Amino acid sequence: MPGILAAIATSVPIAVAGLSLLAKSGGGLYWLFAAVVLAFITGIGNAWVLLVEIVRDARYRPIAGSIAADRW
Fold first, then answer.
1. Is 17 exposed, middle or buried (0-12, 13-18, 19+ CB in 10 A)?
2. How many independent structural domains does the chain possess?
3. Of 10, 17, 23, 31, which sits most exposed with the smallest number of CB within 10 A?
């Protein structure tokens, strides 16, 4: 669920940027910059979950006796 909320939170500034560019007021490019920064932070958070947090779960640890298990 947090991934869906992050995607929605990233798309809202893009919509605001488009609307403000069409209206020719409201600083559309500033909103676009905010959307890019938010998307970058969201991507880093998702990468953290995939690379670090999933490995902590015991279900995803290497099988005992395998070559990868020796590194643990």
1. buried
2. 1
3. 23
